[in-house]
């Protein structure tokens, strides 16, 4: 589609799980920070109307005059929406509550599932030389999440280590399968990330063990511990890697980043 030189295409990873509060946004922000520490140029596209990834990366709500709503519904160019974040090397296409009506507003659009995909393949965006694009999805399997899965090369699924965590996964896996059949045959699972683990809690250990038994090496070796520094960081508009670089949470997200850098297409199927 573009004349961009070979090798300039970013790796596009959607962070998705229709359950809220499982660590999607936290993972998006801190994976972006981990990848940028290793020298990669990262774009975070926020498509959750709550806009938490935008806020957590220092793009204040008042300053969000143009957002991913304009990208999806007003034919704005991605390059015109990209903003600097609170961290060098990380850029943000922000979101706000306007997106809440996107599902309804998009119904009449023929290309409604491909809008984000088209945006990240557009020549001026490719020319900007991003290494990674992370898409922070809303807690639903709505058209917004579908757009993210159609645009992505892979999907990273945070799984909160609590009872019933695995139950919700089958619906997401079915959606991924549908999207492979229709719009994006190459979509693969980047990995399932067990989040908010507590090594002193037997239930938490059990959830991790079950996930590994059921999903095998689809599950990242890295798990993310429950760590208060992780939950404090967004109120300082910083990733935990900047807020408290030596915290357990920061170290875990650094390990995850390394796993993702080294773990290229090993082709697990859903
Ligand atoms: P989602 O985007 O899936 O809705 P969030 O990333 O917003 O989930 O996380 C939900 C809540 O849990 C937030 O308040 C966040 O700060 C907190 N949280 C996420 N990961 C951790 C962690 N590893 N340790 C402590 N709190 C966490
Ligand atoms: Mg979120």
Automatic annotation (TrEMBL):
- AAA domain sequence ranges: 11-189
Coiled coil start-end:
none
Query: Could you tell me which CDD domains the record lists for this protein?
Result: ParAB_family
Task: Supply the InterPro entries for this chain.
Answer: AAA_dom, DNA_Partitioning_ATPase, P-loop_NTPase
Q: Which domain of life is it from?
A: Bacteria
Signal peptide limits: none
Q: What does this protein do?
A: Involved in chromosome partition. Localize to both poles of the predivisional cell following completion of DNA replication.
The protein, known as: Chromosome partitioning protein ParA
Q: Which species is listed as the source?
A: Pseudotabrizicola alkalilacus
Q: Which taxonomic lineage does the organism of this UniProt entry have?
A: Bacteria, Pseudomonadati, Pseudomonadota, Alphaproteobacteria, Rhodobacterales
């Amino acid at each position: 589609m573009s004349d961009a030189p070979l090798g300039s295409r970013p790796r596009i990873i959607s962070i998705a799980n229709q359950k809220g509060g499982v660590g999607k946004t936290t993972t998006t922000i801190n994976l972006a920070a981990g990848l940028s520490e290793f020298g990669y140029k990262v774009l975070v596209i926020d498509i959750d109307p709550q806009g938490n990834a935008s806020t957590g990366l220092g793009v204040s709500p008042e300053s969000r005059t143009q957002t991913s709503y304009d990208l999806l519904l007003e034919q704005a160019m991605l390059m015109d929406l990209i903003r600097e974040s609170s961290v060098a090397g990380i850029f943000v296409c922000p979101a706000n509550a306007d997106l809440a009506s996107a599902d309804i507003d998009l119904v009449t659009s023929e290309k409604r599932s491909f809008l984000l995909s088209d945006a990240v393949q557009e020549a001026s965006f490719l020319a900007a030389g991003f290494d990674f694009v992370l898409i922070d999805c809303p807690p639903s399997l709505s058209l917004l999440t579908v757009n993210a899965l159609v645009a992505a090369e892979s999907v990273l699924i945070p799984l909160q280590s609590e009872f019933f965590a695995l139950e919700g996964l089958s619906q997401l896996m079915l959606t991924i399968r549908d999207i492979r059949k229709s719009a994006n045959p190459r979509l693969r699972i980047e990995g399932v990330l067990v989040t908010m683990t507590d090594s002193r809690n037997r239930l938490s250990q059990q959830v991790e063990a079950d996930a590994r038994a059921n999903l095998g090496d689809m599950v990242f070796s890295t798990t993310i511990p429950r760590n208060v520094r992780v939950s404090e960081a967004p109120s300082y508009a910083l990733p935990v890697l900047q807020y408290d670089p030596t915290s357990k949470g920061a170290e875990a997200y650094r390990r995850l980043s390394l796993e993702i850098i080294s773990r290229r297409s090993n082709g697990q199927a859903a």
